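Exercise 7. Predict the joint structure of the components listed below.
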Amino acid sequence: MRIPLIISQGLIYILATIRAPRYRIYGGIKFYIDTGSPKSFIGQTDGIKSSVPYKKLNFKEPILMGAEKISLAEIQDVKLHFNVEGTTKVMELKIFRVAQNMRKQVIGALKPSILGTDFLLENNIKLVVDMSNNMAYLETQE
Amino acid sequence: MENDDRWFNINFDSIQKSHENEFVVISKRKIVVHDKNIEKVFEKIRKVGIDSKNVLIEFIPERGLVVIL
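Solution:
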């Protein structure tokens, strides 16, 4: 199955609804496809928006994103819902991650949610990108 | 959120002219909240009474600045 991606301003992303009932996490999220990231995670802005219970999570996995140090916590039993031509494609993930910025920034900056190479590998998904034709999609094995 | 995202992409240039370096919250193809401070954005969302779960929140970089992940 092909899941179309959106290309805008040279960035490639997908809109998804995340559900993780165990944590009462629910919300619409813009995930940027980033083959430069080995980890996938929900960024802090989307996390607050989706009611991520930050105080209950164990942030123990520090990573460096550009010049910004962030920390990741695992969440289990996550479902990502994608809209594919009017129908909903649900992807079940045993483990996903939530990011928390280690430095408090009052003035804004992009704190994106990322689908990285681990997402492609663990779910056996191909990423196809044709920038010259403004086309990109994920291809699952179904 | 799909319709709001499409509206945002189509209107990005005009949004950028008036909201450089701000977060904007888009709901039903309108900017309903904007602020430079993300914490204030969430405060304003609560005050306006919008459910944050399905709105689009975007940071608008200053003109000429390319966003790299």
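Discussion. Chain A touches chain B through 29 residues (CB under 8 Å).
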